[in-house]
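Design review, sub-item: ligand-bound model
Attendees: FS, YL, KQ
YL presented the inputs for the copper (II) ion complex:
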Amino acid sequence: MTSTAGVDSRILRAPHPVPGAPDNWKRFFSFNTDAKVIGIQYIATALFFLLVGGLLAMIMRGELITPEADLVDRTVYNGLYTMHGTIMLFLFIFPVLNGLNNLLIPCMIGAPDMAFPKLNAAAFWMVPVFGVILMASFLVPGGPASSGWWSYPPVSLQNPLGHLINGEALWILAVALSGISSIMGAVNVVTTILRLRAPGMSLGRMPIFCWTALSAQTIQLIGLPALTGGAVMLLFDLVVGTSFYRPEGGGDPVLYQHFFWFYSHPAVYVIILPVFGVFSELFPVYARKPLFGYPFVAGASLVIVGLSLIVWVHHMFPSGVPQWMRDVFMVTTMLIAVPTGIKVFAWLATLWGGKLRLNTAMLFALGGLFNFVFAGVTGIMLATVPVDIHVNNTYFVVGHFHYVIYGAATMGVYAAIYHWFPKFTGHMYYEGLGKLHFLLTFIGTNLNFFPMHPLGLMGMPRRVSSYDPEFAFWNVIASLGAFLLGVSIIPFLLNLVSSWVRGPKSPANPWTAIGLEWLLPSPPPAENFEEHVPTVISGPYGYGTGRPLVEHQAEIERSLLQA
Ligand code: HEM
Ligand SMILES: [Cu+2]
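KQ shared the predicted structure:
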């Protein structure tokens, strides 16, 4: 062991061949407590369910390519959109984001692992468990839940077959377990960020991704108990016969809507905030400029948390809430445009005049930002009560939220996966396949989801398997876009697998990025920096300034080159 100017070279020690070491693939199938392993477990599980949810979407769009209900009947269609929505939210997007948290947060803040590694592994393993419970609903009498991913009573309280084990009960159980797992994950993220930062990393020097993760997981801690509790009450109404929501027993179905949306609106920000974090990390690297307005970008996340918790009634404008409530919640909803606008402005200012490097990760980030701005415009339209009353329950809404959740969030996730792939696998991905994936995704998203706006304005209702022939034209285009999106997954998965198996080796810092994670070898050893955590001496976005991030940075980089 040699020691250069205060840096022990063990910092970069080659991974040792012990169980759980980075060269042992079997650890991905074990109860492993290394956050990097758990991160990849989450992402792989989520991508599996993206395929399942995507398959259901393909059947729906196959049905909708013609006006008649000829591929599946109405009941099956109800089950399809219920399961598609549920799987995409609870088994794809949340798990994939938990995966990014696990991979990125400890490495970005110089922690050896998450604060509670066993809780972390337990939270992950609940995902396949409730995934199986949810999928089992395809096999029980009566088929899967079919009252939508929102599962409103009284519709969700109908159990025509009278079985105790029915699709709806399994749905509620899965959602409640998902809530518990996510609460466990949130406790871990918040504690890790607040307690385990490297010496010198004040909150004001923390990467924006960590700020957005902290904000998003705070929402989880506040909101999820409402959803989970509300779902358990629904389960009681369904299988024990209580009357929390049954009007005939003195209950109130609208109470469920309050529980549900108190969490499920802010959940949108649980999804989109980390994607804002990804944009904020990638734009400075690929434009080679400092992030514009760091304190505002960080602070806007906290403002979004506060506002997101007081807007939920905008989902209930047509549910018979008093007019004063509509007014209040219309205004709070619109206020969110302010912190969000500040972020968009900061990103544009970061990109402005920069030397843009358009690799796959950057293309996905730029495409995601474009789609997000489009979704923001239709979002403001929906927040306006009279517009909402008009287009509610039409395809306009479906178009709006798919722009958010596919166009912006899922594309942001793709950007993150490409950007950090070399770091965590030790291999470069293939740019050609990556750019093909981007092209198909960007064109597919817009072909698929843009036509839903004119369809909604023309009055096409959502949740239908057949429609008036006047809607045929835009539906054909939407379905073609959907099939393109289906195809786009092929180069993506091909790239991930083939690059990981035999892609060229990645250096420690292939993008010459600034950030603690780029001072670790690729892939990082089990405990990241172990006891040799460098001392942070400046903020994370000093691009073009030549300012070092940590003490003895030059020595660390030199020994990384030798490793
Ligand atoms: C290939 C991509 C996709 C296609 C073609 C697609 C298509 C659809 C369709 C046709 C519906 C039914 C709408 C209705 O009848 O009201 C739907 C609903 C839904 N989708 Fe997707 N989807 C895709 C991707 C995604 C992704 C990636 C997510 C989330 C991460 C997602 C989340 C949802 C949700 C939550 C619903 C709920 C139903 C609702 O609120 O109406 N979708 N999707
Ligand atoms: Cu909302």
